[in-house]
Amino acid sequence: MKKAKKEKTKVYDTKKSTRLLAVISSVMLIGIVGLVLYNVVVVNDRDSYMRDMENNYQQSFYELIQSVNDIEGKLGKLSVSSGTATQERLLNDVNKLSAVSISHLSHLLQNIDGENRITKFLNQLGDYADYLYKKVLNGEALSDEDIDKMGEIQRMVQKLGAELSSVSDKMGEGYKLINGYSGKDTFLKDIFDGLNETTVEYPQMIYDGPFSDSADKSTAKGLQGSDITVEEAGSAILAIYSGKTVKADFLNETGGVIPVYNFMVDIDGQQGYISVTKRGGRILCINANRLTGEQKLSEEQCIEAAQSFVVLLGFDDMKNVWVSNYDGIIYVNFAYQKDGVICYPDMIKVKVASDNGDILGAETANYFLNHTERNVGEPTVDKAEAASGISKKLVINYVRLALIPIDDKEKFCYEFYCEYDNALYFVYVDALTGKEVNILRVIDSDSGQLLY
Amino acid sequence: MSKSVKIFAVCCVIALAGAYVFVFSGTLFTGISESEYDGEVVAAASLKQGSKGEEVKTIQKKLKNWGYYSGAVDGIYGSATTAAVKLFQKKNKLTVDGIVGAKTAAAMGITLAASSTGGYKSSDLDLLAKCVYAEARGEPYTGQVAVAAVVLNRVKNSNFPNTIAGVIYQPWAFTAVHDGQINLTPDQNAYNAAKDALNGWDPTYGCVYYYNPKTATSQWIFSREVKLTIGNHKFCV
User: Fold this and answer.
1) Are residues A252 and A202 in the same domain?
2) A112, B49: Cβ pair inside 8 Å?
3) A with B: how many residue pairs have Cβ under 8 Å apart?
4) Measuring CA to CA, which of A233, B35, B108, B202 is 20 to 30 A from A312?
């Protein structure tokens, strides 16, 4: 009796284990078949994307090497050239090639942190070449010092080329750039970091172009007066919006070229942000935003509203020089005008909502950075003479005198507002030399007229 | 024995069916996510009240021909055009919002250009707005302008590429580009912020970095001098 029961249990057990085996094997089979198919479908896809990525990186890399080597070659030629035509061409080429190099480099550099000295080096190199190019163009000869400096830079570019070639050698052995981006190795990063280390002596460049290291040291020439307190800054805001319900909460203060107190404000329910200069307590920036409704005011009415606001902010002799309309928000630019000369560097911008005329913003930093009582003087070239220098194709609509910023310097010019082939142009002719110094083209668009 | 063979055969069928479902669901999943993505990109092109230009004229002409619209064909999307579009949408069983998006445009038989924001070097503005929306959409408005300003400050800085696209797409420079949020459709606020920055508003006064102290992973960034804090972002030089 006992035995029979035991046998029965055994039979039962065998059945159970067969069923268990079937379940396990089916689960395993699902797994295996699934994995195989997964491999075929997904991994194949991923591999193909990875190959495409790698090819993109490689293309940028090889083009980077090419352009760096080209720069090196041009600089070599420059050091032995003496004709100005050759020098002009070579310097212009170096300037263009540096831009090309930076573009390729930016695909390859991972910008997680740190200053990028290679980008900086290439930027300054291009900028320096442009500076020398203009020098040659103006009839000045390159000095021995200029040539020496270029020789120094050439050796740097050689070093950069050599480092990049070492990466290229490794790629010849099957190294993949993409490994560097997926964190599999640090080879590429090490190379770039090495170039980033200060072990290489970058020549200190002595010029005043946009990328010169000295370009940051500007001061706010247009700010007068003594430092004010947060409370006084708050009152300055209230003074502008008299008659309105204003709530101004002090947020923080910011240093820099123009130290400011920042406030979060609420003016009749409109939220915004206002910066008041510590020195003199002037409004440096107002900015607010809302979705505007259908345009109800004309551009002229908006300009008028902006003009009275500029006066309210304490600016005199400001002339509106530009207006653009963007989805119902009107931006009006004002420049300081003295004795009939428009001083473009002293610029103020005001933002007006065209549905009800609300002032949504103002920006005065350029004015305070540049404004000073200048002694412009009289033009030595007369209007007709200046006009004779510009293209005969252009139909001149009007002309006036203006001070424009060029390469961080101010130039006294005739401003010709012209038309050609349905496009509008501003042409600037030096009022002292009669040389054409700049041409701007107006891009006419749905959002208004804008300068290119 | 023959019974276990039978069981095995049944299991095989189940296994294959399972594998099929597994793979199919995989493709099904990718299918859904791609179409959602497309939807967002298409939505980028829409015309609404305040829009202007040739496309608006086309819409007005069509609506007029079909009797929905009686106003002037002037290329300005005003309240009358909105009303006509709403009527058209109602008749054609579309979502009645008065905005000509992809679906309404398709129903009218027209194709919208990639963007309706006008010609202000449009690609720069679009790209900048996308970056603002992806990086700072939850931030106060000034914080959004500040993010756009940082991009423009980088363009001017010698340590960075010299174009807006170069700066935004530089590998790892912006988290939101890396994780794909850059492809979300920016809202009007993001466009306004980008436009402000392009017009010279810079609440950061020259900053080229910013980070969110709660999520930043780079140790290096903490060593930078913080110029100011707006919302969740610290801006530094």
Assistant:
1) no
2) no
3) 190
4) B202
